[in-house]
Amino acid sequence: MSAVAAARLILTRLREIMQARTHAQGKLNQVVEIIGDSLHSEVCSIYLLREGMLQLFATRGLNQSAVHVTKLAVGAGLTGTIAQNIETLNLAEAATHPEFQYRPETGEEKFHSFAGVPIVRRERAIGVLTVQHTEPRRYEEVEIEALQTVAMVLAELITNAGLVDDESTAGLDAAHAGQEVLPGLQLVKGLAFGQAVFHQPRIVIEQTVAEDIEAERQRVYLAFDRMREQIEQMAGQAEFGVDGEHEQVLETYKMFAYDEGWSRRINEAIDSGLTAEAAIERVQQRTRMRMREIQDPLLQDRMHDLEDLSNRLLRIVSGQLGTAASLGLRGDSILIARNLGPAELLEYDKRRLKGVVLEEGSLTAHVVIVARAMGIPVLGRVRNARGLIREGDQLLLDGDGAQLTVRPAQGVLDAFDARLTRSREKQASYALMREVEPFTRDGVRIEVMMNAGLRDDMPMLSLTGADGIGLFRTEFQFLVSAALPQRDRQTRLYRDVLEAAGEKPVVFRTVDIGGDKSLPYLRSETSREDENPAMGWRALRLALEREGLLKVQARSLIQAAAGKTLNVMFPMVSEPWEFDAARDVFESQMDFLRRCKKTLPDAVRYGVMLEVPSLAEMLDVLIPRLSFISVGTNDLTQFLFAADRGNPMLAERYDWLSPAILRFLRRVIAATVGHPVQLGVCGEMGGRQLEALALIGLGIRRLSITPAAVGPIKELVRKVDTREIGKAMSGWLASPPPNMRTAMLEWTARHDIEVE
Ligand code: PEP
Ligand code: MG
Predict the structure, then answer these.
(1) Segment 336-359, tens digit of pLDDT
(2) 569 FRET partner, CA 20 to 30 A, in 2, 166, 699, 748?
(3) 523 vs 367, 526, 539, 673, CA distance in Å?
(4) Phi-psi region of 699 (alpha: psi -120 to 50; beta: other; left: phi over 0)
(5) Dist. CA 202–CA 90, nearest whole Å
(6) Residue of 611, 665, 684, 703 with the most ligand 1 atoms within 8 Å of its CB, for mutation
(7) Cβ of 214: how many Cβ atoms within 10 Å?
């Protein structure tokens, strides 16, 4: 008999039992009879997990007096091993297995052969199904397959009857029991505590045994069609995530989606009497079990992809399509996902979303930029996070230490609590700085502004007491939209932002998209991919060629700022003519609106971001046309050092406190002296205390930084004497110390300036 026929025979009989109104114990007693009978086994037993122990719950062939008496620890004996490792055992001679334990009360000494399969629910064993035989022979593959299929159906019966509860489940699987620390890559720093929530929740399979096999086959067939369509669509608009990585994943998706072996196995499982959902899960379980035996990381990654796809298929077939966002977060939560798009992140309730853990992710991924703006810590590159973490697990996300503690022990929790409290106290003390004006000890007023990009960032302006928005990244709206934002939507956003800012200035940066911040709806315009996205067709380069885009943005900004001052800043200006061309676009929009008798801004101030080193050589030419310059140290340093800012291998290689950068900045500052042009720094560098001190030492008087840094930087400013640090900086730049950071730290210690 084939595996399919064997399983089908058993399932047909099981279905009747499951539908009967007998109590659960009665059902299990019948189940062991049917299975034993069908597989010609003298013994068939079911062990269930109760209070952390595997209890013999029903048996045919062993002593009935052992039922509810024989209990095995997880990991003990053959049954315990099956549960612990979630593996199948098939032995001609049970006693030869190193884990074999003899339980006299069962009377099992006369049985030689032994086979057992785990009863799995949500990837965890909740029990074990075993068969035994007097004659020493291994069970055939078809019999094992039939047992595994039956175990799936049993999992449903057992859970529905409430025979094992969730708490006891937690005790079973050692791999999922104790504390575990998973390393990752810090993408957004910070500490967070909450329960694990999967971005894509696990599917609950409600029915495992099919009523109508033909109908189930049809359902899977349609689901495959839908899934293939979705993948083709994704390939057509590949966007979020690291480019190369993402494409590889899509390729693998495609390979599996069209893999005949996979669909055939699912169909066979349906033939054996399972519903479409159960069949997909059955095949997935089998793959998982096989994978446990293979250690090759490349293959494991592949399997990860298959798992993803299998879940997608399950979601389609079961109609359970929503993400955790649509279900709503219930308490403090840490989101677990392979990867996310920025729009998906923004769908979550910000009050409850405390952190994000990604299996992929990189520093420049859009979702990370948005999370940083939202102040949500993100840990990336956590390998197999979705396999190692369970929904509902307690998690401690330590962005600063680049690690995630899963199911933390009490001691760890206490220590973390203390750290969290300290960091909150610190935050609270910074909040007290809100009303404090940042004057240095020698009376120099440093402007401390904040960076923003979303409407939701605006409340931070009054919460931090920042002097204004020194950089509003308008591309965020583009990144979180499915299509190019229309003019009225842009105008509305800019107007809201200006209104929220009140009297405080806002500097709008025109879109910095293209390159690594590519948009699916713009990509079709470019036939080729940039090999070097950061140095590619991005920001103003793109905007000047897509003049329509810049025009729409110009008009939106001008109209939003009617009757107010409009500060416009152009990103990635590399030569003065680019600035002129961009300004012309704005000026012609002003003319147009003037002719239309629209109210115009009271003043328009133009500025550039200094991010490309070539511009520093041309400042004398450009400065007379500028109201302000903002140094974007994020991009500037990657160009100065020729070191990709998104490459984690280089993340710690070059220091912002390098004499090369500081000397460069000093030259820029010198070029502005005597000109009525405002000079500031808006890169991440300015948000760190020691780096900010260096900038002040160079003569920078305006910083625009991430909101969380406003308090700490104000605190620093009040401890500084600009003359002292200015003098020290001149000395260091004239003859650079071997390590600038060390030299500065020694200096701060001598001057009683505490830096983080
Ligand atoms: C910069 O490059 O320093 C900057 C502030 O802009 P962004 O980080 O958005 O590229
Ligand atoms: Mg930049």
Answers:
(1) 998 787 767 877 888 899 999 998
(2) 699
(3) 18, 5, 14, 42
(4) left
(5) 30
(6) 611
(7) 9
Atom of ligand 1 nearest to the CA of 631: 3
For 180-201+324-416, CATH number out of 3.30.465.10, 3.30.450.70, 3.50.30.10, 3.30.110.40 equals 3.50.30.10
Residue 646 pLDDT: 67
Query: What span, in angstroms and rounded, lies between the C-alpha atoms of 87 and 289?
Result: 6
Rounded Cα distance between 411 and 416, Å, is: 9
Lowest mean pLDDT among 66-75, 88-97, 222-231, 525-534: 525-534
Residue 447: what residue type? E
Choose one of 475, 641, 682 to mutate for the ligand 1 pocket test, by most ligand atoms within 8 angstroms of C-beta: 682
Chain-centroid distance of CA 577 in Å reads: 41
Q: Which two tokens stand for residue 377?
A: 């810590």
**Which superfamily is assigned to 3-174 in CATH?**
GAF domain (3.30.450.40)
Residue ranges of domains in the chain? 3-174, 180-201+324-416, 213-318, 436-750
- pLDDT tens digits for range 47-67: 999 888 999 999 999 999 999
Kindly tell me if the per-residue pLDDT of 176 is higher than 60: no
Q: Residue 301 has what pLDDT?
A: 66
> How far are the Cα atoms of 33, 37, 59, 112, 702 from residue 137, in angstroms, in the given order?
21, 17, 21, 8, 81
Residue 471: strand, helix, or coil: strand
Alpha-carbon span 372 to 369, nearest angstrom: 5
DSSP assigned state of 538: B
Closest residue to atom 1 of ligand 1, CA basis: 632
Per-residue tokens: 402: 């680049």
pLDDT digits (tens, 9 = 90+) for 646-662: 666 776 788 899 999 99
Instruction: Supply the mean pLDDT for the chain.
Output: 88
Per-residue pLDDT tens for 545-557? 888 899 999 999 9
The pTM for the full model equals 0.65
Of the pLDDT bands very low, low, confident and very high (cuts 50, 70, 90), residue 521 is low
Angle formed at CA 621 by CA 627 and CA 631, multiple of 5 degrees: 50
Q: Whose CA is nearest to atom 4 of ligand 1?
A: 632
Residue 224: pLDDT over 90: yes
Q: Of residues 753 and 401, which shows the higher confidence score?
A: 753
* Separation of alpha carbons 473 and 454, rounded Å: 8
* Cβ atoms of residues 462 and 504 within 8 Å: no
User: What are 560-592's pLDDT values in tens digits?
Assistant: 999 999 999 999 999 999 999 999 999 999 999
Instruction: Find the 633 Cα to ligand 1 centroid distance in Å.
Output: 7
DSSP letter at 517? B
Q: Which helix (H) or strand (E) holds 354?
A: strand 353-358
Q: What is the CATH number of domain 436-750?
A: 3.20.20.60
Q: Sorting pLDDT into bands at 50, 70 and 90, what band is 240?
A: very low
529 Cβ partners below 8 Å, 6+ apart?
A: 243
